[in-house]
Amino acid sequence: MKGFKVYNKDFQCRNFQYEIGKEYLHSGEISVCHSGFHFCEKLIDCFSYYDFDPKNKVSHVEATGKVITERNKSVTSQILIGDEISWQQVLELVNIGTGNTGKSNSGNMNSGDCNSGDMNSGDWNSGNMNSGDMNSGDMNSGDRNSGDRNSGSSNSGNVNSGWRCTGDWNSGNRNSGNMNSGNMNSGDCNSGDWNECNNESGYFNTENGNVRLFNKDSGMTNEEFYSRYRIPRCLHFALTVWINSKKMTAEEKKDNPKHETSGGYLKTMGYKESATKSISGASDNDKQLIRNLPNYDADVFEELFGIRI
User: Fold this and answer.
1) 215 within a domain of the structure (yes/no)
2) Which among 285, 277, 274 has a CA at the least distance from the CA of 232?
3) pLDDT for 217-276, tens place per residue?
4) Which of 29, 44, 211, 308 gives 20 to 30 Å between its CA and that of 283?
């Protein structure tokens, strides 16, 4: 019966010294987790009992005596220590994908575990470039997101920094509508709470009022505003961004040592930091679209986004 065995850096297991190419015989009864020479048929199962650490040694083994197996672990009365397996070979054996430093990945370049997506530092992600856990979307730094570019948790929408939102672009919490900075809204673009209508800063409203722009009444409803004016893409900025290793600073490389394998790291930015980066890179035409908005106030805009245009 062939399998795998993991040892500490000195090639010891349970204080017993092993050596490549040698065969060992246990005298007496054998029992899983108690006595005998232990191993696993699948290499990945070994790391249920040993840390997934490149300092540990790993080898092929062959059980040449009596064998007892319980779940994913076996014990034998006689064992032959086969060839040592390099850590690079270990990564290839426990991952279907390539370039992973984590284990059980079918995706590529993951430093986390059990990812089917690529370049994840978190675990159990089917999306890409996630630093949180159990994400099926892309570029999430929060947990359990099925949407995209979320820094919050339990979101099924996109670009949410709030919690448990099913809509998109929410910075508030528990919104089923879109682009809400308030909470518990089923409508869109609300800064207040519990609103079924749109663009409301108050509470418990079902009918739309006029839109306030730059702290002044615009005289338009939400629908009228969006039919007359276009919001440039630079104001739809993400709060997470993938930084390629070649563009990382020395400090970033020090704080994210796994970037050498993943090819970079997922940076989470603050609201104004992200806004400033997006707006400063906007075209002159898009900046002019912002200035053309009703009641445009450069001071208010700077206070909102941290940049003056």
Assistant:
1) no
2) 285
3) 999 887 788 889 989 989 988 777 788 888 999 999 998 887 877 778 888 878 888 899
4) 211
Each residue of 64-123: pLDDT tens digit? 999 999 989 999 999 999 999 999 899 889 887 877 878 888 887 788 887 888 878 888
How many domains are there within the chain?
2
With a threshold of 0.85, does the pTM exceed it?
no
CA gap 2, 41 in Å, rounded: 6
pLDDT at site 295: 95
Planar angle of CA 133, 89, 81, nearest 5 degrees: 120
- The beta strands (E) that lie in 141-239 are given as 210-213, 216-221
* Farthest CA pair distance, the chain: 91
Question: What local confidence, expressed as pLDDT, does residue 280 receive?
Answer: 95
The secondary structure of the chain in percent helix, strand, coil, rounded to multiples of 5, reads 20, 20, 60
Rounded distance, CA 228 to CA 225, Å?
A: 5
* Dist CA 106 CA 120 (whole Å): 11
Closest CA to 117 of 101, 98, 136, 132: 136
Residue 228 dihedral angles phi and psi, to the nearest 5°: -105, -25
Domain that holds residue 289: 235-305
Half-sphere exposure of 292 (CA within 13 A, CB side): 12
Alpha helices in the chain (DSSP H): 43-46, 87-94, 222-228, 250-255, 259-262, 271-280, 284-291, 298-305
Q: Would you call 75 helix, strand, or coil by DSSP?
A: strand
Task: Return d(Cα 94, Cα 1) in angstroms, integer.
Answer: 20
Does some domain include residue 279? yes
In sequence order, the β-bridge partners of residue 60 are 4
Q: Which pLDDT band holds residue 184 (cuts at 50, 70, 90)?
A: confident
Q: Is residue 161 part of a domain?
A: no
Written as one letter, the residue type at 15 is N
